[in-house]
Structures are given as structure tokens and as C-alpha cells.
Amino acid sequence: MSDDAQLRARAPAPSPTSSAFTSGAKEVQVQRKRVKTRTTPRELMDPNAGEVGSGVIHVIEDVNEEHFAEALTDGVRAAFDLGSAGYEVFKVILVEYQQARISDGHRDSLTLFFSEGQLNGKRTEMNETQFQSGLNELLSKGVVSQKAPDQYWLNQALFFNGNGVILIKEYRLLPSELRNV
Which domain, by its residues, includes 75? Predict the structure, then answer.
């Protein structure tokens, strides 16, 4: 089975009435790591241990809008192991979201209609094959989910109406029996 076919096979079924992202915490397996998206800090806690971790280093950096968008897109790319098509489509969706949010307020879904080298009537550098491949990757990795044809729910932990983002990478020691494997 091709990589694209595998990605499509794992995507959740479309739902025009409810977003897969409104029920809170989401987790997806990407390669050998688990990627969790949360909208509240409490959801970051380990339910077994009742804590975030033994040690936390939290650095807050004030940046301009361009650097903020770059940090967010690079963080999502790294967390979800996005390929080049998925990364490019995520960036385009983020721009569409920001423009829709400015004109309409908070949004939880977007229309993404690609035709003749244009996304929603705006010229783009990618072709339809690249767009569909990237979109399938985002669907399979829980970045967006299908609402209806050409309409997509947005993962609210990644598309939000705020001025800050926390990107966390947690390191855990392997169990002793797996350390030398």
C-alpha cells in the first residue's frame, strides 16, 4: 500500500456536525512517538502520575508575528513529522485560518477548495497532487479532520485565537530492559 493510501486509511470519517477536536485532548502515534494536542494545561498532566514531569524548563520569548508563525509551523512540523507536502499545506491552511479569523472572529473549520492551481480562489505555488498529498497527511495525523467535501475541522490546539503557544518536547528514559537494545 502506498504511503498516501495508508494515510487516507487512518483518517477519521467526515462529520458535518461535530468536530473531532472539541472533546479535548487528542493523541496520535507518529513514527515511534506519541503526539498529544491539548487546549488546557491540565490536560498535559500524566493521569497516572498526576504531574507534568520531574523537571520542566519553561522559556518565554517575545517575538514578532513572522517569527511566531515560523516557530508554530516549525514546531508542528517537528511534532507531527510532517513531510514537505504536509508542511506546505499546513502553512497555507494557517494563513487561510488567520485571514478568516480576522474577518469572522474565531473559527473552528475552514473551506479548502483547490482548483486550477488556486486554493479558495487564491494562486498557490503547489499543484493539486501536492495539495492533496499534504492534506491527506494532515488528516491522518490529526491536524485537521473532514467536516464535509472541501470543509475541514481544525485542531484547536494548533489553530487558536491567542498570542502565545507552548511547544513541549518531553524526554523519558527507556525502561532498563530496553536501554541497550
Answer: 3-178
